[in-house]
Amino acid sequence: MPWYGCGVWYASTATELITEPPRSLGTDIEMTPPSAGQHAVAHAVPEEVSSPSNSERLADFDFLDLGASKGMMIDFAKRELGGTRGMGIDINAAKVEVMQQRGYDCLLADATRMEFPSDSVRFVTMCHFLEHLPNYAAIERSIQCAASVATDFIYIQGPYFDADRYLHDRALKYFWSDWSGHTCHLTTDFLGALLDGNGLSDYVMLGRKPVEDSSHPSILPLDAPIDQHEYDPDIHSPKSLVAFDASLYMEIICVVALRPLENWNEIVTAPTDCHLIRGTLPYG
Question: How many domains does one find in the chain?
């Protein structure tokens, strides 16, 4: 069965990734907002590259990384998730060229047009990717496709949006919550319902990097402009010190098991500084 039309639309952005010491990261975390308008611009992609239908493309690969950017998720997957050789996919020609120059395998492709047979790789990673899709139906289709092409698990990582209303009520916000490139605010409730509704009921959902009060640099005053970075008192208005009485994080990580895995614990504990939010499988 082919990896049908996939519905994964990766909008190219100017988003860059900040790199921390290698073992400290689940993988990269976006830190620079896209320039206005860039999140909705798809680059021209050659037909023969953008519509791969032959299974040979993945014959030598055991995992697929959607929205590969600079390749750091591929590094993490090889180092911590048991991956051997990963194929990156990105629609940004400049990023693909840089990755290839650095020795990564990467396809310049619009993932909405990709077709791979079922069970082509062991796992699929999506890091800071889903929030850039045009709508929630595209998110669902991308996860359905990942579940079809992979045999073992899906690894999802992205910004934490669960506390948007909580922070708004306190005249605060995360700096990433009104980036123009973040077109879908994927919450843990929605992701859980989506997974359950698609028969993907074996997973854990983690919060990464706790945010305990408003002094955290990820927290901005509500009146800050859109497309901002971390709090800067020279740029942003003062913010009151608020101790949060709820659990807030910088990122969510969700690992979905597609079959029983002997190395499950090693996979779900690979990202550091995480706390269990919910799940049907053991964690830690």
Answer: 1
- C-alpha span between 244 and 36 (Å, rounded): 32
Domain interval for residue 30: 16-159+183-209+248-279
- How far is residue 67's CA from residue 88's CA, in Å, rounded to a whole number? 7
Question: Is the residue at 255 inside a domain?
Answer: yes
Beta-bridge partners for 121: 150
pLDDT at 134: 86
Q: Residue 65 corresponds to which amino acid?
A: D
Cα atoms in the Cβ-side hemisphere of radius 13 Å centred on 208: 22
What six digits make up the tokens of 270?
């690979």
CATH code where residue 90 lies: 3.40.50.150
How does pLDDT run across 11-56, given as a tens digit for each residue?
A: 332 222 222 323 333 444 555 555 433 333 333 444 434 444 446 7
CA distance 68 to 225: 28
pLDDT band at 279 (very low <50, low <70, confident <90, very high): very high
Q: Per 3-state DSSP, what percentage of the chain is helix, strand, and coil (rounded to 5)?
A: 25, 25, 50
Those residues whose C-beta lies under 8 Å from the C-beta of residue 146, and which sit 6 or more positions away, are 64, 66, 124, 126, 154
What is the pLDDT, as a whole number, of residue 90? Answer: 82
Q: Determine how many CB atoms are found less than 10 A away from the CB of residue 265.
A: 13
Has residue 2 been placed in a domain?
no
For residues 69, 27, 225, 217, the Cα torsion angle rounded to the nearest 10 degrees is -150
What SS3 state is found at 73?
A: helix
Task: Tell me the Ramachandran region of residue 103: left when phi exceeds 0, alpha when psi lies from -120 to 50, beta otherwise.
Answer: left
